Amino acid sequence: MPITRRRLFGLLAGAGALIGVPSLWMSRMKTYDGPVSDHFDGLTFFDPDGAPPKSLREVLRWQFSGKRQRSAWPDWAPSPHADTPPERVEGDKVRLSFVGHASWLIQAGGLNILVDPVWSMRVSPVNFAGPKRHNDPGIAFEKLPKIDVVLVSHGHYDHLDVATLSRLAKNFAPRVVTPLGNDVTMRSADSTIKAEAFDWHERVELGGGIAVHLVPTRHWTARGMFDRNKALWASFVLETPAGKIYVVCDSGYGDGRHFRRVAEKHGKLRLAILPIGAYEPRWFMRDQHMNPEDAVKALGDCGAQEALGHHHGTFQLTDEAIDAPAKALVEALDAARIPQERFVAMKPGQVVEI
């Protein structure tokens, strides 16, 4: 197939959801300005135990290689589940509702917390190209309870969705807790977004006996071609009445040290939310996204009692089939002799209570 200008732009818009390629205008975007640290050199953030993002040459090799094997997803793959959450959850329970991709509603201690909320039809720098939804959000936006806090893990378009954050700001005016620099992105787009930025290893009191820790994760971030790693990325450890919940929105596995360090620092974890999708081809995705086999290793490393699998089945960001992650998770658990019920691949609208 010839590489037309339209096809090139469309494919790069899709890649931009992960790697921030097509947004040339983002070169003028304001970025973080702060002191040098062991993971910030004064201009860009870095992970001392991670890997740098792929180059544009490697992006083009992936997108246009004649050997590429991209599975076709069905145009629409509705989930059999849909949730109407309660107004609040009190006491020692935690209610987790899977919205889709990496978006969650977590209700605990009288607080309603959204993680990486995306209700948009596309995750892309533009609204006419790039990855689009293949199923509805597990909670209709109109059925959300009052949102108190939003956690945003990093700046990739499938995690930081300005359109959704603006809707939330208009309807609920929640606090938005995010790693350093992403607050600049949000406020530059919409000054009404109440963004608060924090560094790795900081603990943030959310109220109701709930707190969140921002912890290192093996990933990176960008919104455009010229702002790679100008903001920070993180995973979250939530302190809740039912125990600690480790929320990993995007991460490669590496040698597993990021997960072992969470276990060492935060002790017993009641639950881990781990990504299991967007992993093919492995030569390109290995450093930034886990496959199900990696995710099973990560569960062993962090030591959580149970895990929920997400980051699959809603937006086609990579080349594997829509149902491949769930099938591969079953196989990986069997190979590791771990009971299937300990690590479940979620579908939008499913609810778990602990």
Can you walk through the features of this model?
With 354 residues, the protein is α/β, with parallel strands linked by helices. The protein is built from eight helices and 14 strands. It has helices spanning 5-19, 56-64, 162-171, 182-189, 257-266, 282-285, 292-302, 324-335; strands at 94-100, 103-108, 111-115, 149-151, 175-179, 194-198, 203-207, 210-215, 235-240, 243-247, 271-275, 306-310, 343-345, 351-353. Strands 6-5-4-3-2-1-14 form a seven-stranded mixed sheet, covered by helices on one side. Strands 7-8-9-10-11-12-13 form a seven-stranded mixed sheet, covered by helices on one side. α3 links the parallel β4 and β5 (175-179). α5 (257-266) runs parallel beside α7 (292-302).
Task: Briefly characterize the structure.
The chain has 354 residues and is of the alpha/beta class. It has eight helices and 14 strands.
Itemize the secondary structure elements and their pairings.
Blueprint: H1 5-19, H2 56-64, E1 94-100, E2 103-108, E3 111-115, E4 149-151, H3 162-171, E5 175-179, H4 182-189, E6 194-198, E7 203-207, E8 210-215, E9 235-240, E10 243-247, H5 257-266, E11 271-275, H6 282-285, H7 292-302, E12 306-310, H8 324-335, E13 343-345, E14 351-353
Parallel strand pairs: 3-4, 4-5, 5-6, 10-11, 11-12, 12-13
Antiparallel strand pairs: 1-2, 1-14, 2-3, 7-8, 8-9, 9-10
- Beta-strand percent range: 15-25%
Rounded to the nearest angstrom, the distance between the terminal CA atoms is: 51 Å
Estimate the helix proportion, in percent. Answer: 10-25%
Report the uncertain regions. 1-7, 20-27
Task: Return Rg in Å.
Answer: 19 Å
**Structural class, from helix and strand content?**
alpha/beta
Give me the count of strands: 14
Average pLDDT taken over every residue: 92
Q: How do the strands of the widest beta sheet line up side by side?
A: 6-5-4-3-2-1-14
Number of helices: 8
Succession of helices and strands: HHEEEEHEHEEEEEHEHHEHEE
Q: Tell me the major beta sheet.
A: 7 strands, mixed
Net shape: globular
